Amino acid sequence: MEIWINPACSKCRSALSLLDAEDAEYTVRRYLEDVPSEDEIRGVLQRLGLEPWDITRTEEAVAKELGVKEWARDAGSRDQWVRALAEHPKLIQRPIITADDGTALVARTEEAVRDALSR
């Protein structure tokens, strides 16, 4: 499994601590440094079963600058959202775990991390 993290994020650190406590095998992707491409974001969204606006941190300063809260949330605007996530990775909700079974989830709670471990 792989976990996308921002080391400054307390939810990310908690998820890593739980993975370590469970002796899980995983790789860390510091997505602010190793920025995912638009195609990678689309792939993770497919695995998550979510739309790009579902994983966008709309309260970030850059989100407010871009005015993302006003953007349409439909198939026609999907590429605009994905492009924004790739260009401004700080907008990506975290942590995201891509599980070994091909699924993914936003692991902001202990329950979500345990769910990823069970996959």
Automatic annotation (TrEMBL):
Keyword DNA damage: no
Record GO terms (molecular function): arsenate reductase (glutaredoxin) activity
Keyword Oxidoreductase listed: yes
Pfam families given in the database record: ArsC
The protein's name: Arsenate reductase
Family: Belongs to the ArsC family.
SUPFAM superfamilies, per database record: Thioredoxin-like
CDD domains according to UniProt: ArsC_ArsC
Domain of life of the native organism: Bacteria
PROSITE patterns: ARSC (PS51353)
Keywords: Oxidoreductase
Stored InterPro entries: Arsenate_reductase, Arsenate_reductase-like, Thioredoxin-like_sf
